[in-house]
Design goal:
CATH class of the largest domain: Alpha Beta
CATH topology of the largest domain: D-Maltodextrin-Binding Protein, domain 2
CATH superfamily of the largest domain: Periplasmic binding protein-like II
Largest sheet: 5 strands, mixed
Number of helices: 15
Oligomer: single chain
Shape: globular
Order of helices and strands: HEHEHEHEEHEHEHEHEEHHHHHHH
Strand content: 5-15%
Distance between the termini: 27 Å
Strand order of the largest sheet: 7-6-8-5-9
Helix content: 25-40%
Structural class: alpha/beta
Number of strands: 10
């Protein structure tokens, strides 16, 4: 059995019965973590300074406003735990959590100043920066969330090659400004126009489209209910990710606040890994997660938060800047960003040192490369198609942790 990480804190929770969609998953017991938060090696929460509290109060950021996704359990369950367990408050930060169920509202909340801490996909993050809203990403919130091309069950298309050989311009439904849109742009030889729609619409594979590009958990629902057939997925073409980020002023004027946030985010992930069933309950207790059952949320947690070593959260600036330079170039060419930026430019908006310190405080090494790259991976980031990576489609068990080289010391 592969060990999973954990913490000791377990609280009682009453959750409502929400709208059930048809999806089943197993609920295996979670093994104990080698570094539980209550062990001597787990650091006590460091308190932010009075000066930083005064800064937040002067900015009108007291309480700190936190925005997170309710509708993507595989990326967000640890944010629900962070809020429920008051892990920011434990570090001296008064915080108020707001959940969102789609990209535009969570993006608008940060752009308008409604939130100061949030997370979402790479293109929305770069769109935020492009609009002149100072933001810095300090961690990866989730990576390799599967996106796939799905055709109607009665479609004559059975493969990506069939779609590329179509005798007409394809109509593909997906969410504009998302990494699903960039996935489509990454596929060479695909002639299409986008029918903009929400994921909740796209997952139904509506009439009038040749295909939809949908991400999990909507993808799993589509396939499990037999609403469509998967003919391609994102992994050879693009490495989708989402970032955790704060307003740049926090990094510049109250770095201990950002450090406390990074520490809380990692602690929350360990809590999910210690008790994923509880994390699923917390996730679907949110009214905005009304479309998912506990079983569905748990399936996504297993697939995305338990699969990789917890050190996946470290933001490898060189890797992600090289991959995201493609995203920025594509969107600038399409007139959706106002300026072109190189990979070196993009690194200016990454601050990986906070998560590096969070890992070090637990006695863990920063991984030399993203944990989803297999030993000897021959790909060149930024130059797809990519050889296979470690992802929900290629891993049958969670990555072992810790392995030789994962722990600090000789």
């Amino acid at each position: 059995m592969v060990p999973r990480l954990g913490v000791a804190a377990v609280v009682r929770l009453a959750s409502g019965v929400l709208v059930a969609l048809l999806l089943a998953c197993s609920d295996p017991p979670a093994p104990a973590d080698p570094t539980p938060a209550s062990s001597p090696s787990a650091p006590a929460p460091a308190q932010v300074s009075p000066e930083s509290v005064a800064f937040l109060q002067a900015k009108g950021w007291w309480p700190l406003e936190v925005g997170y996704f309710a509708d993507v359990p595989g990326f967000s369950a640890h944010w629900a735990v962070m809020c429920a367990d008051r892990l920011l408050q434990a570090r001296g930060i008064e915080a108020n959590c707001q959940s969102f169920n789609s990209g535009p509202p969570i993006l608008e909340a940060f752009l308008s100043g409604q939130t100061q801490l949030t997370h979402y996909g790479d293109f929305p993050f770069w769109n935020t920066v492009d609009k002149g809203v100072g933001a810095v990403a300090f961690a990866v919130t989730g990576v390799n969330n599967e996106v796939a091309l799905v055709v109607p069950v009665d479609s004559p298309f059975t493969s990506l090659d069939d779609l590329r050989a179509a005798d007409h311009e394809l109509v593909i439904g997906t969410t504009l400004g998302s990494y699903a849109e960039f996935y489509l742009a990454s596929i060479p030889g695909l002639k299409y126009r986008i029918a903009g729609m929400s994921m909740r619409d796209a997952q139904l594979v509506p009439k009038g489209v040749d295909a939809v590009a949908v991400w999990d958990p909507h993808l799993s629902l589509t396939l499990d209910r037999g609403l469509g057939r998967k003919v391609d997925n994102v992994f050879p073409w693009y490495v989708p990710t989402a970032y955790e980020f704060v307003r740049r002023e926090l990094h510049e004027s109250a770095p201990d606040v950002v450090q406390a946030i990074a520490d809380a985010s990692l602690e929350a992930l360990l809590a999910v890994r210690a008790d994923p069933a509880r994390a699923a309950k917390l996730q679907v207790a949110d009214p905005r997660a009304r479309g998912w059952t506990e079983a569905q949320a748990r399936a996504q947690i297993d697939r995305y938060l338990l699969l990789y070593k917890p050190t996946y959260k470290y933001l490898h600036a060189d890797f992600w800047a090289a991959e995201d330079a493609r995203v920025v170039a594509s969107q600038f060419a399409a007139g959706r960003l106002t300026r072109a930026r190189s990979a070196e430019d993009l690194k200016h908006d990454f601050v990986p040192e906070y998560m590096a310190r969070s890992l070090a405080a637990r006695g863990w090494r920063v991984p030399t490369a993203p944990v989803f790259l297999p030993q000897g991976w021959s790909g060149v980031v930024g130059s797809p198609p990519y050889p296979p990576t470690l992802n929900a489609g290629t891993l049958t068990d969670p990555q072992p942790f810790p392995e030789p080289g994962d722990l600090a010391g000789p």
